[in-house]
Amino acid sequence: MTHAPLSRRQMLTRSGLIGCSLAASPLWTPLSLANAPWQGRLVVIILRGGMDGLDVVRPTGDPAFAALRPTLAKGDAPLDLDGYFALHPALRDLMPLWHREELGFVHAVSTPYRDKRSHFDGQDLLEAGTQDLAGAGRDGWLNRLMQALPQVEAETAYGIGQEPLTLLDGAAPVANWTPDAALHLSPQALRLAEQIMKSDPQMYAALMEAQLLSGAQPGAGSGKKGPAHIEIARFAGDRLRGPARIAAFSLNGWDTHRAQARTLPRSLGQLSDVILTLKQDLGAAVWEQTALVALTEFGRTARENGTGGTDHGTAGLMVMAGGAICGGRVFGRWPGLGEQALYQQRDLMPTDDVRAPLAWIMRGMTGLPVSTLQGKVFPGLEMGPDPELMR
């Protein structure tokens, strides 16, 4: 007897092994994947909370920096990048990527969002990729990218969790899930299920995939999962080694109003883990074709506050990694930190729209014309000259 092909959703639903609930923990994060017809891989990470780019890539060569950050400048010495900028010591493990030109940064960038400094509005505009909030809420820029490409076929659509990333909302089909599903089966029950399902190749494949999602090894019962951010990176890496070409997910914990010297290193450590796990799991050949970008809704104030932290600001930092990017450089037009150079005399001045480097990376990955990227993917954007972010 032959069986009609089943979609992944049908297989997993039929096997009854994966739940569809949203975790209450703030560590919950959706991961979304989509197929694409080009060979490169694009990974987009939303850093929710407003990452302090001035602490991550420190302008130690700017004479105003030390005076603005007398407390945050203490502690372990930052890692020199180019004689002017230095990297936060929590990202020490990424320095080999910097030296191989597989890690880079774009400083003093922001979305068009200004002045109110709301996380919700800032993230909405970041994920919409539009000129203002009036254009947000319809679809996201990553979905519009896929709509502009021919022959895009997403993995069979299915979702785990209730809130997919809005940058992937839109007409193009996208698979959304969280990698926190678990097999609540005893080892005995799992072995019995394996024996029963071996007679049905599709059901058996569903069981094997469910075990992968739960972090278990086939035939060994449900295993103990690692940290959530590592599981996300591994799950993304597994799909990107196959037909998937785009992965997008978010990392939380970047809102550093207090005790930034203690809290920021934890978030940076997770970002470092994610990048290095992806590099390892993708393998050398796929990593060479990969561009990873990490974005945040806004930067933070140039001055530290009275509680050892920083408040919501304007311009921030974009992180890039992967074998496809032209790293080993801090890109962007540095505005300086003198009082008159600051935005509203409090924030790092934006000198470029963060959508522009994103658009140039997409052009390098997909070959889409500038007119499409400026008119459809990022409406209202002027990309400017090519900053040569891609190899």
TrEMBL record:
Pfam families cross-referenced by the UniProt entry: DUF1501
Name this polypeptide is given: Twin-arginine translocation pathway signal
